[in-house]
Amino acid sequence: MPPEMTVKAQSETSNSPSQTRPTNIPTQSELERMGRQRPDIFKTWWAEIGFYFSILGSMLLAEYFISRFTIILPTLSTALDIPPESRTWPANVFSLVTGAFLLPFARLSEMYGAYTVFTSGLGWLHGFSQNFLMLTFCRALQDFGPTAFLPSGIMLLGSIYRPGPRKNLVFCLYGTFSPLGFFSGIFIGGLSGDHIRWSWYFWIAAILLAVVSLVALAYIPSDRLDQRSKQVKMDWMGAATIVPGLLLVVSAITDSSHAPPGWSTPYIYVTLIIGVVFLCCAFYVEGWISDKPLLPFDLQICACDNSLVRAHGRRRTRPRHSWRVTLHLLSGKVLFVASGTGYVVSVLLFALIPERFSYWAYVFPAMLGVDVTYSVSNVFITTSLPKHQQGLAGAVVWVVIFLGIVFFLGVADIVVSCTAHLGVRKTYKAAFWFATGCAGLGLLLFVGFVDVGQAKSAFTADEKAELEAKQ
Q1: What are the Cα distances from residue 147, in Å, to 155, 245, 296, 372, 427?
Q2: For residues 464 and 73, what is the distance between their CA atoms, to the nearest angstrom?
Q3: CA-based nearest residue to 166, from 386, 384, 455, 382
Q4: Three-class SS of residue 13?
Q5: Looking at CB atoms within 10 Å, which of 54, 151, 201, 367 has the fewest?
Q6: Beta strands in 119-273 (DSSP E)
Q7: Distance in angstroms (rounded) separating the CA atoms of residues 313 and 458
Q8: Mean predicted confidence (pLDDT) in 428-446
């Protein structure tokens, strides 16, 4: 039984004299207290603040690279003579490579500890680019940094903080640094592209990464010995089929809109077919061959309750600190639906925007979408899974994000290419109507299939399993 569980052992006899309820089960008030206190692994406030700085800084820099590279892309395209049909690759390759390698790197976190993988990812080197191929190659190498530190960062948060208000706050802050990184990338990308030199976009990020890396080395708790004692092994067959399958399928979709004859181009459909074959092999390997699959079929992420663990807190809030209080009052489903509605409205405004429009009527409201799905999903998944699967929890979250970005950007590019004969304005309209359809489908899924309760102090997944085993 974990140390937090050894509080005020109380024997409560049930209606049947021959049956007794398990002892050492904390009351709800005791769970609430444990959910608010600083984890024992942090001896001082400064240690926890240093930990916050490292994890939150990694999120800011990840969003800096993910979302705002497109700001300097026009300047880069001119400086490096990148043809129009190839300009999607430097932007997409980041999400593509990161999404494809997340599961193997999550397993490395479980094998060698989140500390080792997280700090190694922050220290990944960046390159000097003199042409399009070198830029794409260095951009792909750059992806291995976030591939390492993003799932391991969630693994650290999910394993250190137990369900409760403190975990809610931490994940709220983690989500808050996503838009901060987004707008920081806009500012620095615009500044470096127009007033300095495009390479400063990367140099400034490298300086920030160096600072975050040093703080992480000092304040991230080391869990290497703890993880290695579990004797987790790499699923090499799964990695050898999942990674190339994802790379080939998404590459074919992304490149199809710019290939001269489109989908009839031999290298497009051959790449797609080979990718699909790899993914089918991965499905078979993960389900029936591998004894330690990267993505196990029996992965259970559910929001079920029972008499012992009534307030199983696995839901959370949003990229704004103020939502932390709301999480205790509203269910996760309400927050998901609110977020889905915000998604629909934000792209629908651009789809309906007239030729002569008011910024405050169309553009500004579209920037205020209530994006809470990321934070709610993080808390829900990390609380649902046991400690030894926290690396997988981080990978699941980010795989969906990155592959969603690169896949649907590729499909949107196809939509734009197919409607190019209608003119630029209608082409953009078609892309935003496609986005509206995707957002609407997501909202329907939230309404019909998502059932997530409030985020409250509760038992961890490991504690719940231990209690159920003693019944």
Answers
A1: 13, 17, 20, 23, 33
A2: 49
A3: 455
A4: strand
A5: 367
A6: none
A7: 6
A8: 91
The pLDDT of residue 46 is 92
CA distance 37 to 365: 38
336 vs 138, 333, 348, 372, 446, CA distance in Å?
Answer: 37, 5, 18, 7, 6
Q: What Å distances lie between residue 65 and 31, 124, 442, CA to CA?
A: 39, 14, 25
- Helix spans in 113-164 (H): 114-122, 132-160
Distance CA(412)–CA(418), nearest Å, equals 10
Tokens 């820099």 belong to which residue?
Answer: 61
Query: What distance lies between CA 118 and its chain's CA centroid?
Result: 15
CB contact at 8 A, 107 and 294: yes
Q: What is the mean pLDDT of the chain?
A: 75
Reported as a single tens digit per residue, the pLDDT across 240-295 is 999 999 889 888 887 777 777 777 788 888 999 999 999 999 999 998 898 888 88
Place of tokens 């390698």: 101
Q: Tell me which residue has tokens 């497009």.
A: 268
- Compute the distance between CA of residue 149 and CA of residue 395 in angstroms, rounded to an integer: 10
Mean pLDDT on 431-439: 92
Structure tokens at 232: 């987790």
Q: What is the C-alpha to C-alpha distance for residues 95 and 403, in angstroms, rounded to an integer? A: 7
Sign of CA dihedral 31, 159, 52, 328: negative
Tell me how crowded residue 127 is: count the other CB atoms within 10 A of its CB. 14
pLDDT above 70 for 325: no
Q: Supply φ then ψ for residue 220, to 5 degrees.
A: -75, 125
Cβ proximity of 221 and 152 under 8 Å: no
Mean pLDDT of 190-203: 77
Q: Are 98 and 182 in contact (CB under 8 A)?
A: no
Helix, strand, coil shares of the chain, percent, nearest 5, are: 70, 0, 30
The single-letter DSSP state of residue 106 is H
Q: Are 410 and 402 in contact (CB under 8 A)?
A: no
> Among candidates 316, 313, 355, which has minimal Cα distance to 336?
316
Q: Is the confidence at residue 315, as pLDDT, over 70?
A: no
291/469 Cα distance (integer angstroms): 24
Residue 46 burial by CB count (10 A; 0-12/13-18/19+): exposed, middle or buried?
Answer: exposed
Which residues, 6+ apart, have CB-to-CB distance to 104 below 8 Å?
Answer: 234, 239, 242, 243, 294
Spatial contact of 416 and 334, defined as CB atoms under 8 Å apart:
no
Distances in whole angstroms, Cα of residue 96 to Cα of each of 8, 255, 278: 51, 13, 16
Cα–Cα distance between 101 and 103 in angstroms, integer? 6
Q: Is residue 156 within 8 Å of 116, Cβ to Cβ? A: no
